Amino acid sequence: MSKARRFTGWHMTTILVAFFAVVITVNIVMARFALSTFGGTVVENSYIASQHYNEWLARAAAQDRLGWDKSATLDADRHIELAVRSQGKPLDGLATTATLSHPLGQLPARAVHFAPAADGRLISRETVPAGRWRLDLSVRRGADEARYQIDLQ
User: Fold this and answer.
1) Which of 5, 69, 81, 119 is deepest in the core (most CB within 10 A)?
2) Which domain holds residue 64?
3) 4-30 residue pLDDT tens
C-alpha cells in the first residue's frame, strides 16, 4: 500500500506562483499587442471636438442632400480610380484634395493628386503601396463639398 502525499504549504505556494505568473504573462502580452497596433489619438482634444459636433452633423446633412455617389478602386498598377456621380451621371469640374494614410498610423501620410480620365473618372498620379490604406478625400464642385474616408487594400 502506498503512502498518500500530503498537501503542504510548498504545494500551495507553487500553485499561487504559477497562477500569477500566467496572469502577469498574459497581461504583458496583451499590453504589448495593444501598444504595437494602436496608431494614436482620434482627436487631439475631445472637448474641442465636441464643440464642433453640431457643425459636423450639419455638414454631413448638406453632403447627403447633394446626392453624390462615389466609388474608388485600385487598378492593376495600384493607381486609385475615382468616380463621383450625381443621379448616375459623372460630375465634371471637380477639385479634389486627398491624403493617403496608414490606418494604424505606422507609416507617414502622403498627398494624392488626381488627373482626369475617360468617362468622368479621376486617376491618381501616385501609386498606392501594398497593404491597407485609408483615403481621406475632399471633393469640391463650386460651393458644394463632400468629404469621404475610403478604405483601400
Assistant:
1) 81
2) 46-152
3) 889 999 999 999 999 999 999 999 999
Dihedral sign, Cα of residue 113, residue 69, residue 94, residue 57: negative
- CA 70, CA 82: separation in Å to the nearest integer? 7
Question: Is this prediction's pTM over 0.85?
Answer: no
| Residue 142 one-letter amino acid | G
Among 114, 60, 63, 70, which Cα is nearest to 91's?
70
Distance CA 74, CA 149 (A): 15
- Per the structure, how many domains does the chain have? 2
Helices (H), 38-95: 46-51, 53-66
Instruction: Indicate the residue type of 60.
Output: A
111 and 79 housed in the same domain: yes
Examine residue 107 and state whether it is found in any structural domain, yes or no: yes
3-state secondary structure of 126: strand
Kindly state whether residue 3 falls inside one of the protein's structural domains: no
